[in-house]
């Protein structure tokens, strides 16, 4: 079996006690790396200031070598904060209004990808399979090919891929699309993202859809497909059952005694629809006064990318809105919204999911959304809660037992909250069983196996006709 080389912007390092880092994706990839032997390479998260970064720092754990590189301050500013998070992230989440183009940032993005390729290439053996993750590293394969690497290289995009009309507003859309064609397999979260990709090739006249997932573009034949990511369903369900006894979860249970609890869990990000969701909760309470003092909404929102101005602004808006609703509707003995603006342990999170009558997952746009899947997996099979899910999350294409909402429609979301709270136990069980069965049969290990299986079987690339 060939060695596997995973490349991602950040690398989930194993905990000091040797156990794998938490989180389904990390666990699944670490298992695949452990089985085949391999390397996980990425940015250390550290900056070397304005000096050229030193050598890669390497850590060996079993069969896996973790290889981390620092970046300079300029690299972090232009590649990470600049192009990746202020151009690609908003564009892929359909937010043309938030994209900030700058030549410096675009150049920095391609430069850092070249730098990654130069650091990675000396470690690669001819039979290695390379799996690149996410929007930070789209041009990596092209850079590796430029250096003469002939290895199988796959790419998986964790976030949505927008329709052509949106993508073409980005000044370097051609270079980005050319970058994708240098992979042997390009994986998206959903069919819809895949159709957007194929639609762009067709519309811009730069590629042919050959059928069976094969595409011909920029002189290369490659495969593209939808590979909806899953979670470690069975493991997470057991974990949540145990976590229900965690002291913090017990304390929370006592503190909401006699009330229903609704939970929302999101990185603080404008794509997650937190502001619209708080509005929907307020509307629900004002149009269903009988529920006042009967429901507590817990919003867990760890800070994210706080150094990017849009995120700093969001943080202020969410805090203000939660405070305003609490001030307007809360009473001396009831706080409608409990807002936690930091990360909580995975253990407590799993227990809280299980405690909540409703999981409120209403992103304006999301590649998949693992919180929706974790909420379902964490439920007590005898008394499962209800998932209220945005139709614009990739997960909505699979979780048919959810109450689907349009998060822009505040009243519609408020009505779904009311419907969820009033739902009979029988209907809750039926909806939950349907979703749980799907999640058990489509977990993250299968996702990993499917992607790697298809990458190995991807067609031999045709010799390149054009030069980059
Ligand atoms: C990207 C795509 C796609 C959240 N708060 C805490 C915490 N979390 C964990 C959740 C979940 C993960 O973070 C978030 O995953 P999501 O999928 O919801 O969202 P993104 O971070 O935007 O991920 C997304 C995903 O990649 C995978 O492909 O689904 O569409 O945007 O696992 O549980 N974990 C802990 N404390 C917290 O406070 N421990």
UniProtKB/TrEMBL annotation:
Check the record and name the Pfam families matching this protein: Glyco_transf_20 (PF00982)
Q: Which keywords fit this entry according to its UniProt record?
A: Glycosyltransferase, Transferase
The GO molecular function terms of this record are: alpha,alpha-trehalose-phosphate synthase (UDP-forming) activity
- Pathway, per UniProt? Glycan biosynthesis; trehalose biosynthesis
Per the record's keyword annotation, is Nucleotide-binding included, yes or no? Answer: no
Q: What class of enzyme is it?
A: transferase
Which catalysed reactions does the entry list for this protein? D-glucose 6-phosphate + UDP-alpha-D-glucose = alpha,alpha-trehalose 6-phosphate + UDP + H(+)
* InterPro entries linked: Glyco_trans_20, Trehalose_OtsA
Keyword set includes tRNA processing: no
Q: Which GO terms describe its biological process?
A: trehalose biosynthetic process
Question: What EC identifiers does the entry list?
Answer: 2.4.1.15
- PANTHER family the record matches: BCDNA.GH08860 (PTHR10788:SF106), TREHALOSE-6-PHOSPHATE SYNTHASE (PTHR10788)
Family statement drawn from the similarity comment of this UniProt entry: Belongs to the glycosyltransferase 20 family.
Query: What function does the entry list?
Result: Probably involved in the osmoprotection via the biosynthesis of trehalose. Catalyzes the transfer of glucose from UDP-alpha-D-glucose (UDP-Glc) to D-glucose 6-phosphate (Glc-6-P) to form trehalose-6-phosphate. Acts with retention of the anomeric configuration of the UDP-sugar donor.
Tell me how this protein assembles.
Homotetramer.
Q: What is this protein called?
A: Trehalose-6-phosphate synthase
Instruction: Record the organism.
Output: Rhizobium leguminosarum bv. trifolii
């Amino acid at each position: 079996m060939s060695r596997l080389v995973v490349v991602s912007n950040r690398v989930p390092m194993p905990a000091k006690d040797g156990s794998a880092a938490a989180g389904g994706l990390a666990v699944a990839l670490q298992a695949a790396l452990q089985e085949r032997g391999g390397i996980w390479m990425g940015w250390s998260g550290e900056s070397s200031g304005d000096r050229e970064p030193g050598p890669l720092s390497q850590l060996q754990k079993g069969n896996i070598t973790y290889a981390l590189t620092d970046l300079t301050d300029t690299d972090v500013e232009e590649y990470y904060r600049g192009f990746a998070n202020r151009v690609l992230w908003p564009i892929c989440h359909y937010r043309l209004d938030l994209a900030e183009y700058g030549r410096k940032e675009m150049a920095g993005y391609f430069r850092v990808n070249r730098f990654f390729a130069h650091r990675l290439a000396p470690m690669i053996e001819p039979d290695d399979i390379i799996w690149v993750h996410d929007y930070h590293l789209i041009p990596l394969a092209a850079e590796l090919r430029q250096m003469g690497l002939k290895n199988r290289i796959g790419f998986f995009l964790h976030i949505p891929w927008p329709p052509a009309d949106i993508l073409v507003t980005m000044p370097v859309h051609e270079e980005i699309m050319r970058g994708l064609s240098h992979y042997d397999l390009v994986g998206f979260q959903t069919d819809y993202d895949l159709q957007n990709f194929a639609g762009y090739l067709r519309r811009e006249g730069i590629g042919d859809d050959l059928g069976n997932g094969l595409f011909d573009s920029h002189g290369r034949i490659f495969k593209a497909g939808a590979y909806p990511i899953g979670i470690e369903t069975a493991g997470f369900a057991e974990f949540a059952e145990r976590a229900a006894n965690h002291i913090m979860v017990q304390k929370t249970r006592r503190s909401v005694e006699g009330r229903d609890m609704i939970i929302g869990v999101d990185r603080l990000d404008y794509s997650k629809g937190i502001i619209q969701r708080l509005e929907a909760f307020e509307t629900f309470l004002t149009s269903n006064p009988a529920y006042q003092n009967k429901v507590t909404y817990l919003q867990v929102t760890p800070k994210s990318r706080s150094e990017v101005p849009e995120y700093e602004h969001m943080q202020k808006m969410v805090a203000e809105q939660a405070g305003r609703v609490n001030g307007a509707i809360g009473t001396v003995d009831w706080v409608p919204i409990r807002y936690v603006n930091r990360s909580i342990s995975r253990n407590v999170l799993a227990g809280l999911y299980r405690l909540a009558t409703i999981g409120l997952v209403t992103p304006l746009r999301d590649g998949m959304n693992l919180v929706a899947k974790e909420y379902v997996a964490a439920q007590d099979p005898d008394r499962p809660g209800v998932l209220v899910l945005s139709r614009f999350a990739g997960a909505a294409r699979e979780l048919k037992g959810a109450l689907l909402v349009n998060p822009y429609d505040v009243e519609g979301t408020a009505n779904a909250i009311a419907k969820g709270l009033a739902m009979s136990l029988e209907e809750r069980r039926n909806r939950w069983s349907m979703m749980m069965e799907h999640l058990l049969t489509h977990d993250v290990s299968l996702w990993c196996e499917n992607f790697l299986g298809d990458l190995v079987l991807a067609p031999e690339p045709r010799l390149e006709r054009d030069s980059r």
